[in-house]
Each structure stands twice: as C-alpha cells, then as structure tokens.
Amino acid sequence: MSTGTADGAPNAIDARTTAARLAVLGGVATLLLGVSITAVAGTLPRSVQFLSLGLSVLFLGVPHGAVDHLVLPRARDAPVTHRDLALVGGIYLVAGGLYAVVWWLAPAVAFAAFILLTLTHWGQGDVYALVALVGADHLETRVSRTLTLIVRGGIPMLVPLLAFPAEYAFVTRALVGLFDPAAATALEFAFEPEARLALGIGFATLLVASLALGYRATDDHGPWLIDAGETLGLVAYFAVVPPILAIGLYFPLWHSLRHILRTMLLDGRATDRLARGRLGPAFGRFARDAAPLTVGALLVFAGLALAVPTTPATTTDLLGLYLVGIAILTLPHVVVVTLLDLEAGIWTPRG
Ligand SMILES: CC1=C(/C=C/C(C)=C/C=C/C(C)=C/C=O)C(C)(C)CCC1
Ligand SMILES: [Fe+2]
C-alpha cells in the first residue's frame, strides 16, 4: 500500500483512522451532551442555550472556516502563493459582499437562502466524512451522495421546524428583524401545521429512500450502519433538544470538527501528528493557522453590528447578528469547500 504518494502512505492511513475516530467521537459527544443536558435541565432558558452557540465563536465553529485560504493549495500539495490568497480573498469579498446586500434589500429572502445554504453545506460536510473517513461504499453513485447530502443537511434545518416551530419563528425574527421587523411575516406560512406536515412527509420519504438505497447497494454493512446510526441519532437529537442549544453543539462539535480534521489531513505536519496520536500539537497547529482570519471574522461581526439598521441591544439581537455574520461568511466558505470536494473527486464517484 506504500506507494510513496501522500494518500497511500502508512502515515496518511493512520492519520485518517485517527480522524475518523475523532469525527465519530465528536458526533457521539454532540448527541450525548445535547440529550443529557436536556434530560437533566428540561426546557432551558434561551440565555443558557445562547452560551453553547456563543462558545462556537472561538471554539471550533468560526475557526473551521478560517483556514479557507490554505486548503486549496494544500490539497494540490503546492505552496500557498499570493495568487491563492487573492483568489480566496476575492471569493469572500464578492460572494460575501453580494449576499450582504441581499440581507439589506430582502431580509426574508436572505434568511430562506441561509437555511438552504446551511442545508447544502452541512450535508456536503457529512458526505465527505462518510465517503473519505468512514469509507462508505454504499454511497457509490452521485445520486446516492446527493440524496445523503439532502438528508444529512436537512435534519438540522427541518427537524427543529417540525418539533419546535415557535423557537424557529423566534430565530427567524431575530435575524430578519435586524433589517426589517415587518419582513418576517412573509415567512409565516412555513410555520403553519399544513406546511410542516408536507415538509415532514416529503423529508421522511427521502430519508427512508436514502437509507434503503444505501442498504441495497452493498454487502458490507459496517459503514452503512454508521451512516444509519448517525442519521437516526441526529433525527432524535434535533427532535428533543431545544434548537438553539442543538445547533450550538452541532455546529462546533459535529460539522466544524469534521471539517477541521479534513483540513489536517491536507496538511503534512498535522497529518504526521495525527498519525502519531499527538492530538494537542495537531490542534495547536490548526489553531495557529486559523487565528488570523478568526480575528478577521470578528471584525466582520463588529462591522455588521455597526452597519445594521437596528442598533443591537439585546441578547436576541446578538444572536441574530452572529447568525447573519455566519451566513455572509458561509456563502464564500461553501464555494471553497465545493472546490475542495471537486478536487477530492467527491462528486465524481466511480459508480
Ligand atoms: C440557530 C437556529 C437555527 C439556524 C441556524 C443556522 C442556519 C446556522 C448556520 C450555521 C452555519 C452555516 C455555520 C457554518 O458552517 C434554526 C435552524 C433556524 C432553528 C433555531 C435555531
Ligand atoms: Fe463549514
């Protein structure tokens, strides 16, 4: 197996095994933490739920995207040049800038787009983890991967709408209200029982179809079991854990951790440390790489706070600001991760 290439070297294989274990561990931690906090504390005050989301500003969440300028050259085993930095800077400026304008002009449209964007992005993150870390050979076609993307991304965006519509509406108003408090009424139809029932039935159908298709696609059911276990675990999690807390744990510990591990596997030194089980130094290197643009993201949040029409005064306003800031940073982040996916052949499977 030792071909001398980065991917086939024993070092890379050990590192990938460590990454896969950490990804599953982060996933289990998300579900157990969320469910046990909810079981012990019951309905948590929003201020307490905000805490978990607040931690993600510096802990795993925001930093996971702060190495976007390094990942594409590293994926090609090339040095990071000024051209690479200019390209990623340009993507952030243009995509983030244009999307910011949409928040000002049509905040309800921008919010709906944010939900779709997050669905796509969190779904694509899980498809990568399943294919590259878990070795999911039940996802050998583009159709099955697309279905998995919709299901995995759809769970965090749809299940809270079905289980906690009032909280969902509250968060919607927190974001849209920063720009135009009246505009959120355009989205009220989505919280009606009929709309939620239709969405629920449609989504449950896709979920069952996706797992059934995967089950029939292979004889080795180990990776499929991990996929099915994670999928059903996430449905249960988002059905019972209050949504701000649920997202506040999922974003850093599930989505961001998986992406950080992916970026480590593109980086020779971090890969080496992962392979030797030296997790502290591996994460230390990531933290150093991510520090400058995490500060950059904080500046974006501060600029946004000054620029929005409503002067942010309450914790609800802060929640809205943080999420609008994330929305604006996520669109360019998705462009970079999609380029990374294409580079890694995630969307050109053999099957
Ligand atoms: C907080 C929260 C919501 C939205 C969260 C979103 C959309 C987060 C997106 C984060 C991203 C894109 C991070 C980057 O990877 C919902 C679902 C409305 C339900 C109520 C709680
Ligand atoms: Fe991400």
From TrEMBL:
Keywords: Cell membrane, Dioxygenase, Iron, Membrane, Metal-binding, Oxidoreductase, Transmembrane, Transmembrane helix. InterPro entries: Blh_diox. GO terms for cellular component: plasma membrane. Pfam families: BCD (PF15461). The chain crosses the membrane at residues 22-44, 50-72, 84-105, 111-134, 146-164, 170-190, 197-215, 235-254, 286-307, 319-340. It is an enzyme of class 1 (oxidoreductase). It catalyses: all-trans-beta-carotene + O2 = 2 all-trans-retinal. Its cofactor is Fe(2+). Belongs to the Brp/Blh beta-carotene diooxygenase family. Catalyzes the cleavage of beta-carotene at its central double bond (15,15') to yield two molecules of all-trans-retinal. This is Probable beta-carotene 15,15'-dioxygenase. It comes from Natronococcus pandeyae.
